[in-house]
C-alpha cells in the first residue's frame, strides 16, 4: 500500500496547486496582440525595441507572477515574411542560452490559428545558475502571419499542470 501513497500525494499536491487561490486563471486579450491567452494572474504590459534576426522590432510583453512562477507572453511584428522562421529560431536559441540550459526537450506545438512553421515548438529547459539556483522554463515559439510570439513559464520549479494550462489557453482568433 505504501507504493501508492507517494504518487497519490504527488497528484493531490499538483491538483491543489493548480486550483490554489494564487492561480486565478482568466482569459486575457491585450489590445493589438491578436492572441487570447489564459493567465493565472493579471498581467502587466511592457514594451521595448529588440534586435531579432537582423532587424529591430518593437517587442510587447504581458507578464505576471503567481507564487514563485512567472508567466509571460511576448509578441512582435516583422516587416519581412522571409524573417519569420529565422526569428522563431533565434528566439528559441536565446531562451536556451539565457537560461544556460544544456539541452532542451522539444515538444511539438499546435496553437489554434497559428501559421504552420518548422521552427514553431515548445521547449522544456532546466539549468543550474552560477549561484547554485535551479531554474526551470517552458517556452513556446510560434507565429501568425508576420507576428511572432513567445510564451514562457519560468521558476525554480514549474508545475507541469500550470504550464499545460497556460499553453492550452493560447489561441489566435481569425
Describe the model:
The protein has 174 residues and is of the alpha+beta class. The protein is built from three helices and nine strands. The protein has helices at 2-18, 84-99, 160-168; strands at 26-28, 37-39, 44-52, 55-66, 69-77, 105-107, 121-128, 134-144, 147-155. The strands form two sheets. It has a seven-stranded antiparallel β-sheet, sandwiched between helices. The protein has a two-stranded antiparallel ribbon with strand order 1-2. The termini are far apart. Mean pLDDT is 87; it is low at 1-21.
Task: Throw out a few tags for this protein.
two-stranded antiparallel sheet, alpha+beta, 174 residues, 39% strand, 7-stranded antiparallel sheet
Topology (SSEs and partners):
Elements: H1 2-18, E1 26-28, E2 37-39, E3 44-52, E4 55-66, E5 69-77, H2 84-99, E6 105-107, E7 121-128, E8 134-144, E9 147-155, H3 160-168
Antiparallel strand pairs: 1-2, 3-4, 4-5, 5-9, 6-7, 7-8, 8-9
